[in-house]
Amino acid sequence: MQAPLAVNALEAATVWASLLLVPLGLLLAWALAALRARLGRPHPWRDSVAEVGAVFGTLPWLFLVLTPRGGDGGLQPVPFADLIDLASADPRTIAEQLVGNLLLFFLAGLFLPIRFPLGPWAVLGLGAAGAALVEAAQLAFGTGRVASVDDVLLNALGALLGALASRHWWRASRTVAAREPAESVLRSAGRDWRVTSFEVSRGTDRAARC
Fold first, then answer.
1. 26: pLDDT strictly greater than 80
2. Which residues form the VanZ-like domain (predicted)?
3. Total structural domains in the chain?
4. Which residues span the domain enclosing 64?
């Protein structure tokens, strides 16, 4: 019974650490945005908040899943085997396992499409690749945890859910970004037309005076 209690304490500490990182993340995002604004970079606040949110929202959970725990560990390569076993567990264990695995890359999936031109399926693929690396690290570092393909599926699903949750914001930002070059061309064309019109009118005046 001691191992579950220790794991639960570690999970609680991870949640508290995540909350304590919020003001530090906001301060870092503000500093990055101020620097980008001074350098004349476009969208300084959006990019800075997205970068800091993706990193700070993922690191505590990576620390949790890579922390060693008692046990021999192992590998479970059969899809859905762990999920089927989890169905017979108590509700608290089910909630902890499902929510924990979905949260691992949820914030990364939420912020990355805002920062980079990534679609939901690209985020799903990145989440799966990142989750596979995490499971491989669990085995390589001898953490005593079971590296499971079901964890990869849940981690990737969490990243996809994050991308879908922020869909309104990243679609809106891309619409604005796509509109800006066209508006720039129109403004440039307008300036060229005014210059040309002015030159033609000056030429007409000179011809009339001659």
1. yes
2. 78-166
3. 1
4. 2-165
